Amino acid sequence: MLRRDLENATGAAVRQAVRQGQWTRTTHGVANGYVQANLAIVPEKYAFDFLRFCQRNPKPCPIIDVTDPGDPEARLAAPGSDLRTDLPGYRVYRDGRLVEEVRSIEPLWRPDHVGFLLGCSLSFDQVMTDAGIPLRHLAEEEGRVSVYVSGIRCRPAGMFDGPMVVSMRPIPRPMLVRTIEVTSRYPMAHGGPVHVGDPAQIGIADPTRVDWGRWNPPAADEVPVFWACGITPQAVAMAAGIPEMITHSAGHMLVTDIRLGTTFQ
Amino acid sequence: MLRRDLENATGAAVRQAVRQGQWTRTTHGVANGYVQANLAIVPEKYAFDFLRFCQRNPKPCPIIDVTDPGDPEARLAAPGSDLRTDLPGYRVYRDGRLVEEVRSIEPLWRPDHVGFLLGCSLSFDQVMTDAGIPLRHLAEEEGRVSVYVSGIRCRPAGMFDGPMVVSMRPIPRPMLVRTIEVTSRYPMAHGGPVHVGDPAQIGIADPTRVDWGRWNPPAADEVPVFWACGITPQAVAMAAGIPEMITHSAGHMLVTDIRLGTTFQ
Fold first, then answer.
1. Residue A39: in which H helix or E strand, if any?
2. What domains can you pick out in chain A, each with its CATH number?
3. What is the pLDDT of residues A132-176, one digit of tens each?
């Protein structure tokens, strides 16, 4: 199966292809127009703190769906889904360390597992591209933005307390207002930027040294624009020493049934 | 102190007046431009289910702030606030029954109490009035809308499962589109309507028989418009047999520091 075979598929069709082992790669460029989501599974013991953390930090952690403990279906965002099999890759963390990367978490699933689906920037990049805003990182197959641990502190909740991770995209100056307008309309995909301009003002001393992704230097007519990044809740949970967390593998998202630009309301 | 003395006060000033016993009445018409909130306090044991219920039903339960267990301050929406003293009236429910109505809940507060602030229609009515939409119920001092238990089922979460409570306002037909446009912009105050027109279509057989408030019959040139109502989470929690819940008294809200039309993002 080629990426272009799934380009105009529905979210449900992509999930089925993943579940049947027909699609095992990243989800960028598939099911165009459907919201994709980060996954974070935590034991119920930590779920209320984690949900409050997300609710208080909607830019890095836009809540798309939260499952009932033990229920692997995202009933709101993807009816019929199975969070144990419908993502093309998973990462299992124990005591803050990556212990394995797997294709299915069926053997690991427990009745106290709670799944969080959080908005991700794949949807977001598409919104900008559709609005005619050029995004240089999309020109490469890997599509890597520049990602940093910033000096912006998230609002804490229980054990979860830490800095906001941000992604930077160089934006042509004449496109800056449009970029802010467009992204602000999509709070489910990180919304408007958290900072525009000098990285040092948000605690990034040397922007050439990324924490994740790759360094995409702004050109002379471009300004660095920083958005809250969906890595934040994982990074904060790891730093807090959460004993167990299961997430999507980088770029291997859950594709939902939600159309971009809609809400649940 | 007269209502008009607080009309242009800040949210913090109203909270202080309430805390000092200078204001003991309802909060409609005070601190114009500030978001007011319903309060629901539940034991931590039920808080994760209740938060998922609210998150899944954003129209009846728009989440403004959720406190840490035992913390009486709404740090996001009203820094410096004390949820035990800053509302002019509280209702205490045990096993689904109202047991007392009090001015302060300091003696009742426990380390496992979690406070939920949810958007309310006082803010909402103001938004419509500012947009030139006439609201007949505001002409009376009590300001009572027609409130019904509808046949619309909320999305359940854990023990919380029940019908949506809705409020009805008669809207002049030529104002209908504007009404939907304007209210849709305020998801923190119930957002756009859930139904327009025939009450029977949402399970209200006889609209003259209200469950709360008073019957405001639509005139010949008016259409009944129904919004999700903030009574919903309380009604659902009571019906689910929650052993304890503390709420605001009707109309006695927490006035926050948040300006209408802003978000936390």
1. strand A34-43
2. 122-233 (3.30.2040.10)
3. 888 877 766 566 789 999 999 999 999 999 999 999 999 999 999
